[in-house]
Automatic annotation (TrEMBL):
Homodimer; disulfide-linked. Homotetramer. Can also form homomultimer. It is a multi-pass membrane protein. Belongs to the MIP/aquaporin (TC 1.A.8) family. AQP11/AQP12 subfamily. InterPro entries: AQP11/12_channel, Aquaporin-like, Aquaporin_11, Aquaporin_11/12, MIP. This is Aquaporin-11. One of its GO terms (molecular function) is channel activity. GO terms for cellular component: cytoplasmic vesicle membrane; endoplasmic reticulum membrane; plasma membrane.
Length: 246
């Protein structure tokens, strides 16, 4: 009983974080429904949907990163959360990419015009930055003991290897993920989402301790904005150039 009482504060903090992530997923889902019903014009429609998708992805990843740094009750707990929320994003963010590499790939394959691609890229950039500042404001409320506003203003460098290895890791992760996207297009939607979620979980497990295995430029900008300010060239090469080349 004493042990359970000692674990309860940790469980309460974890439940609060999970509740925040699920709440933002529901809120973004409601916003997408309103957008589809009320907003006219394909460009405005594409911009808002991509903004909402990127905001949701970055918001949840910020909170997942915070949860992964806690002492888990079981070593596979962070990976279970990554898999679960990858499923959630896959089910709720259909029709958006939330990743500049995905937009560029569609443009190169002729599936998207340059104008639409530029609108989506702009929406992703704004969504990533907005999510970062929203997380900073949310953490300042101190809803859990891990929510501290200073966290959002500090550079927490995830690169634990030298630059060439970091470039290779992010490029390979991006190549594998986007190759899977292309090859899984003919697979049934429900099965494809599970396969991609499992692949994302594996890539994070394999490369997370080395570079974070982000392979998404806008997500990297949102997670490590301060690091881009302090070491722009290094982070530009690893988290923007490498995934794009991959």
């Amino acid at each position: 009983m004493t042990a359970l009482r000692g674990l309860w504060p940790e469980m309460q903090d974890t439940c609060t974080s999970l509740g925040l992530m699920l709440s933002i997923v529901l809120f973004m889902g409601l916003a997408r429904v309103v957008t589809r019903q009320q907003l006219n014009g394909p460009m405005a429609h594409a911009f808002v949907l991509e903004f909402l998708a990127t905001f949701q992805l970055c918001f949840c990843t910020h909170e997942l990163q915070l949860l992964s740094e806690q002492e888990p009750l079981h070593p596979t707990w962070p990976l279970m959360l990554i898999y679960f929320f990858s499923l959630v994003h896959g089910l709720t963010l259909v029709g958006t990419s939330s990743n500049p590499c995905g937009v560029m790939m569609q443009m190169m394959l002729g599936g998207m015009s340059a104008e639409t691609g530029a609108i989506r890229l702009l929406a992703q950039l704004i969504g990533a930055l907005c999510s970062r500042y929203c997380m900073g404001a949310l953490w300042s409320l101190g809803l859990t003991k891990y929510h501290v506003s200073e966290r959002s203003f500090a550079c927490r460098n995830p690169i634990q290897v030298d630059l060439p290895k970091a470039v290779i890791i992010e490029a390979v992760c991006s190549f594998i993920f986007h190759s899977a996207l292309l090859h899984f297009q003919e697979v049934r939607t429900k099965l494809r989402i599970h396969l991609l979620s499992a692949l994302i979980t594996f890539l994070v497990y394999a490369g997370g301790s080395l570079t974070g295995a982000i392979f998404n430029p806008t997500l990297a900008l949102s997670l490590h904005f301060k690091c881009f300010d302090e070491a722009f060239l290094q982070f530009f090469i690893v988290y923007w150039l490498s995934p794009s080349l991959g």
